[in-house]
Design goal:
By secondary structure, the chain is α/β, with parallel strands linked by helices. It is built from 14 helices and 14 strands. Strands 1, 2, 3, 4, 5, 6 and 7 form a seven-stranded mixed sheet that branches. The chain binds guanosine-5'-diphosphate and magnesium ion. The site of magnesium ion (MG) has 4 residues, from helix 1.
């Protein structure tokens, strides 16, 4: 199952622009509230240093791509319609959208750092809007959504517990649609200090505290401070970073990234997503306006912030928030190929702590059934089924049912 990353935020903060840049699609961008009435689903890539150079081979990737020694691994991106206050009680199709947001493994919370969006998500004079309040507003909607689902199922949870089920198992079942696991619930219980208190005796305050923690744990969220190219944004970015000092705040210009990727696609520039520079292929191909726009991006975004932030936010979500490791299963451990001779064909993203068995299951249930052990390409050592995979592991799985 590919990892899912959801874009949330108020209307007009730049979610669809971010989505278009990251997926290079053309979803409708507009300054009217509620343009995006349906969620857009697309594929983007998490990018990590490939092992091909270390092993000194030319690879033939199948489930991913290798660009200049960087492995691009597909992840799903969901662009949600703008959320508004009161979404959790159903305002602006809020319930529907919150349900989609809760499908995601991690969230990118896009705010307009330039302050060009008011409380209701309408465009306003830059500097007027309050992105800090917007962060609280929207995340509160998610918490209330979780709270509502839990409170709605209160009697069911109590019944479950009476019949011997644990609280984490019961809550995980109730919130399965929101991808909440029993492990998430256990962590949230610990963090909210409710581990030892009987669920039946929880107060409204306890419910709320638990919902807040559960939201944090099960939907890790990066704050994307977008429109950093607008002058009023740098001050708000500092404020956001101070206010949310325990969170990751990424300065971003979705529009700059979109411009760079389109220019790259048309062959005007050489640019790899996430890089700090681009190179103009042939000056004479550019119109004055295009050259001006590229200069603007260089001066206003890349010079001060090193990157546009789009690719960086995705990578941070995948590798830092979700703590994914990249592993490369092969069939032939000396040639590092699949059955057809493709070198380093596949890269899998697995959460840290995953074992050889988890990888086998991810590849094929049959492979997992007869799993014996794996062999590590670097050392030639046998790795037992419960060996915890490390980032950049290259290995072959040996199984009685099939050899992967
Ligand atoms: N200056 C600037 N404008 C942006 C940026 N990202 C989006 N916008 C503009 O903000 C407006 C709303 O963008 P959109 O992606 O539709 O926002 P959404 O409602 O959150 O999906 C559009 O006019 C975009 O061109 C950015 O990084 N910089
Ligand atoms: Mg949109």
């Amino acid at each position: 199952m590919p990892i899912k990353i959801g874009l949330i935020g108020k209307t007009n903060t730049g979610k669809t622009t971010f989505f278009n840049a990251a997926t290079l699609q053309s979803a409708e961008v507009s300054t009217y509230p509620f343009t995006t009435k349906q969620p857009n689903y697309g594929i983007t890539n998490a990018i990590t240093l490939c092992v091909c150079r270390e092993f000194n081979v030319k690879d033939n990737p199948k489930n991913s791509k290798c660009v200049d020694g960087w492995r691009h691994i597909p992840v799903e991106l969901i662009d949600l319609p703008g959320l508004i206050k009161g979404a959790w009680v159903g305002k602006g199709l809020g319930n529907q959208f919150l349900a989609v947001a809760s499908e995601a493994d991690a969230l990118l919370h896009v705010v307009d750092a330039s302050g060009s969006v008011d409380e209701e998500g309408r465009l306003t004079e830059p500097g007027q809007g309050n992105p800090i309040a917007d962060v609280y507003d929207i995340e509160e909607e998610l918490v209330m959504w979780f709270l509502k689902l839990i409170e709605k199922s209160e009697s069911r949870i109590i019944k479950d517990i009476k019949s011997g089920k644990t609280l984490p198992d019961s809550v995980a079942e109730v919130l399965r649609g929101a991808k909440v696991t029993a492990e998430h619930v256990r962590t949230a219980l610990k963090q909210s200090g409710l581990e030892k208190k009987d669920f039946e005796n929880w107060t409204k305050m306890d419910d709320k505290k638990f919902a807040e923690k559960l939201r944090e744990v099960s939907k890790p969220t990066i704050i994307v401070a977008n429109k950093i190219d607008i002058e009023t944004a740098s001050k708000n970015f500092e404020l956001l970073r101070d206010q949310f000092s325990d969170r990751i705040v990424v300065p971003c210009s979705a529009e700059a990234e979109l411009l760079l990727r389109r220019a790259e696609q048309k062959g005007y520039i050489r640019y790899l997503p996430g890089e700090e520079t681009f190179e103009i292929v042939q000056e004479s191909l550019l119109t004055d306006k295009q050259r001006w726009a590229l200069d603007f991006v260089k001066e206003r975004v890349l010079k001060d912030y090193m990157r546009t932030g789009v690719q960086f936010a995705i990578n941070v979500a995948v590798f830092k928030l979700l703590r994914m490791n990249t592993v490369y299963p092969v069939y032939d451990i000396t040639k590092l190929t699949d059955r057809h001779g493709n070198v380093l064909p596949d890269a899998y993203l697995l959460p840290s702590g995953s074992t050889v068995m988890d990888l086998a299951k991810e590849i094929h249930t049959e492979l997992a059934k007869g799993l014996l052990y794996a062999i590590d390409a670097r050392t030639g050592l046998r790795l037992p089924a419960d060996y915890q995979l490390k980032d950049r592991d290259v290995l072959t799985i040996v199984s009685t049912t099939r050899r992967g």
